[in-house]
Design brief:
With 607 residues, the chain is an alpha/beta fold. The protein has 24 helices and 19 strands.
Amino acid sequence: MESFSRIDLHVHSQYSVTGDPVLASLGIKESYTTPRQIYDLAMHRGMDYVTITDHDTIAGAQDIAHLDNVIVGEEVTCYFPEDRARIHVVVLDIDEPEHRIIQSLRMNIYELTAYLNAQKILHFVAHPFFRMTTALTLAHFEKLMILFKCFEVRNGGKLLWPDQLLENLLAGLDFEMLYKLADQYNLEPRGEEPWIKYQVAGSDDHGGILVGSPHTRLPIAGSRNELLKHIREGRTESSEEGGSPLAVAHSILSVAFHHFERMTDNRQLKSRIIWNLAGQIFNNVDPDRMLNFPARIMLFLNEQLDLFGAGSSNRNSGLFVRELARLVKSHPEFRQFLSEGFEFNHENNEKLFEITSTLIHNSLVRVLRKSGEQSELKQVLKRIRELRLVITVMLVYLIGFRTEYRDRPLMREVRRKYCADDNQDPEHIAVFTDGTSREVVHHLVLKNYRYRTLSRNARIYAFGLSEEEVNADDRENHKSLCQFKIKSHSIGLPPFLNILKRFFDFEFQHIYLHSFGSMGILGLCTGKLLGIPVTAMFPRATFDASLYNMAADGFERFPLMLVKMILKHADHVTVTTPEDMEYLLTLHIPMERIDLLQPSRKKFNVL
């Protein structure tokens, strides 16, 4: 018999008020999960108590408040009045009059917390590093430590970097540290013994797929009041892993699935079967879901005859459906997912990403190859239009990576100030290159990087595009998805989603481009997507040779246009001679972005 109770303290239902103007303008809700579905799914996943914390409303929680083990809550959108930086605060065990007062105070976080503490209303900061509008700063975070007693240290949609950063920081906070901050900001600490902080966890589920992962564990509670007493007195601990960019992306896809399923005409059998198959992934609100008979027959016929992918009645999703059919036929684990359904957790998020990235890459390769075979512009554009659904899914993953990575600067700043072991953290530099030999890492990079701004213990890690396998701790090669011929020249298409995911596993602060080909473009796009500075080296001799070779094939403008595009958007461009600098000025590269390197004797490490 278990010796603790469980509750997911952060969940959203269809009543949640969207704060995104784009979603609102498109008529898309933040969630399509009903309160009863949340309740059933939470109980199915081992929760003993249930709450719903919709944005700025208690309507969802009130819908199931008649059940004995339900706690009414909401997630309040509140602001620092001095700069309009936005923070989410979860409040629990409130009624309608208290909700109205909370909503009237939420534009000022200081007034809100004063009221919550005066009325002894249970509350905690949700995802305290998460940037919503105005970027949160170290000062914002330190004010939160003064104003709040309880923090959400694990969130199903937000990744802490490094793991357990917030848990360790709060556990190490003491009287002297807190009151020094209180004096600095002229704020009165909230709560009894305010230097002792409590920790909770919640899934922050919007798509009906993450409920209960993670969640909060407490001592056995025989009633709702006893559970609230445990939380109020800090007898809590977080359970299971926090979020990831994949969890963010899959939550967005789940919301999109439930939205468009309602908007789609499903009268045709094939359309109904497609949505049924997608529902096996995203309809987690039905724990006992199984494929219906027509879908099982279609899967069987597809496996035997490739019937499922033979054309499509939907011109926008035809390519996607055909590639999905091929993937279902060739991927036994995917067929098992579709036949049995699966619950979202860290391992299954990884598996679904692997399947979906393969689907996206295969679709792109097929269209690009067919477009290359077409001579008429009309046919080429038709092929490219087929990618609309594929690109949409790809963009969702990119949003997931961007959303998670942009919180890291604040976490890094907090870690450097409050975690002594991390004060000497080296800079991590990612190199995007066509090959990853040790000569690239040690010679070309280390002799041409901006030494005067690089710390002595900087670490280099190289991402290359090559058929050569590399087993090293400072570099890795990725094979091209396919090769495209331009006259006598071959251009490789990198598996960009896989590389981006690997990139996310490290904590890179700089990107270095040692390629003006597809890897250079990928490195530049990665930097712009994640907000990381990009430095490009301009190899004049290599560039001149490339220009000469391509001119012989009638493509003399191609390398020049490519170089100008990359260098124009790079944050810095390094050159080794004044002549190279003068040449870049003729290409209209701004002087302030060009760095003439001087010899350096600094030594560097590899990651």
